[in-house]
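Ticket #4471: structure export looks truncated?
Reporter: QA, pipeline team
Priority: medium

Steps to reproduce: submit the single chain below to the structure queue and open the exported record.
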Amino acid sequence: MDVVAAVTAFAVILPAELPDKTMVATLVLATRFRPWPVWLGVVAAFAAQCAVAVTAGGLLTLLPRQPLLAVTALLFAVGAVLLFRGSARAAEHEAEEEREYEQRVAARPASGARTAAISFGVLFAAEWGDLSQLFTAGLVVRTGEPVSVFLGSWLALALVAGLAVVAGRALLRRVSLTVVRRIAGSLLALLAAITAAEALGVHLLG
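Actual output as written to the record:
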């Protein structure tokens, strides 16, 4: 396993997902149902989506490497721009997403298994085409380490879900979502620059 690839994936995905709909959806589910079955269902959904992302990234590595790295660098750069642009409205956007999921998820008695299944379904659907999924695939393209990227991405997502279940709104009140998004944007901008250099044959990391 490549520890650097795993740590990079963790460091990129964690701040990108903290103010994301992933955390909001988990927070809403945890207020509707028992928290731990919610967390189990959510992390299972993340495992499935990370598997999809690393598989897609692995298939993409079969294409010519240099053009693929250029496209990956562009993906990271676009992600950085989106995070920077959305940073000013991060708190407002989070509130809108919370209202949306509150309307979608009705509170009703449910067994642990049913709660986990509902949580799995909500998060599995929410993560399709999400930035974290695209970033995970892009990291596989860049590193060629699908297992390490899977582990780093999944652990970051599982931590976000755990924070939502345990801390929830208290965390969102204490943490500046604007700052978190800007940190994530900065990391992606750095990753875009490194990947672009690699596409040109310059290996900044040795």
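Status: closed, not a bug. The export was complete when the record was re-opened. Leaving a note from the reviewer for reference: Residues 35-60 form the longest helix (26 residues).
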